[in-house]
Amino acid sequence: MPPASDICDLTLAALAEKLGQREISSVEATEAALARTRAIEPKVHAFLHLDETATEAARASDARRAKGEARSPLDGVPIGLKDIFVTEGLPTTAGSRILEGFVPPYDGTAVARLRARGAVITGKLAMDEFAMGSSNENTPFTPPRNPWDLGRVPGGSSGGSAAAVAAREVFGALGTDTGGSIRQPAALCGIVGLKPTYGRVSRYGVVAFASSLDQVGPMARTTEDCALLLQAIAGHDPLDSTSADLPVADYSAAVGRGAGGLTLGVPDEYFGAGLDPEVESGVRAALARLEAAGARVKRVSLPHARYAVAAYYIVATAEASSNLARYDGVKYGRRAPGARSLHEMYLRTRAEGFGPEVKRRIMLGTYVLSAGYYDAYYLKAQRVRTLIRRDFEQAFSEVDAIVGPTSPTPAFRFGEKLADPLQMYLADIFTIACNLAGLPGLSVPCAFTRDGLPVGVQFIGKPWGEPVLFSLGAALDRDLSLHSLRPPL
User: Which residues are catalytically annotated?
Assistant: First the structure.
């Protein structure tokens, strides 16, 4: 058996190839991943629940391969799940006390599709409570750490997923992205993260935050790895009314196409005040590399981008206030003891179960939906959303993809923005518009700062334009090979 550290250094695609050639067994890979997780979790805290029975699924995978019955390239590959996915037999908390003790009796569609293709689920990963946050500090549990600097945040809300992939605890993970919650932590942790087109991946069995914005996506060390994961989970699902009944492209084929012949739009609005100089230089260097590889770069404008954060925090909080009304202590999860009436039980359960940021967003959402304020706030935000979508449509009449920073800064220190919600919200300033418009977005590592912190470049595509994004991301991966760098744990 190869040393566990050597196995864990493999990319998902490389491991899949070795499993296919039977150079490594799934049991060896799974035991290596679990051993590394046990060794470094006291530092990283990426997992909320580690499934010690994962080796049973690995043995079943090895038995299938021995018979020549592998279900997919992912058969036997250890994968982690953000704790927002309903997962049969494993605790699912959405990072909240209000769901403590909840063990679902079924798998959500994305999880079921991974299992059907033979993936080995090793556990549930940390997140901001109900996916509300940009740092993974909004949690009643121990917050995960950024593997590149344990004193800094991994980003959020899929911070545990990003940290686990970067730290080599898993070979890939699933996250969710409502306003940047896959792409921003991917950028801060130096991995690749994709927010697919809205409707590309089923949301059935995903704990809802904002239903018109939430989207499931892959997180891994390379663009090729993300393409393999998306191939497994994409496609129509009759259990999700927002799921698109459209063919799924061959994403792996797109990985090898390169950047040649593509026109890249660079928005003026994404380069200005508030952008860290080292982030800007890293992104512009990535653009220069893509241009040298045959891409054409041109300036574009997204004039309504400045209103994206304001519109998002009206739409998202309004939908959250509705979605989170179901957590009342009646059917599952936390129930406050000793209540003398149903009303008191509701109040105490929600007061004890929800954290401060979740309460803040419920109150904001309830306010903007209330009588007398609906037209002034919610309706106006939806109109701004339409203007933002039209900006993208205009830009995409001239370019194949839009390129800019994923995050305005590298990973920040714990506590640095926690006391100022507005500053925290601005951490997603470059990612939010993509969700409002329902577009696909890919974050790829492109540089490191002088302090050794990763920088991510974001590619935004046309609806169903994931293949173009994979072509660009893979071209940058091959040129830079940043995935081979290892955090100093």
Answer: 82, 157, 181
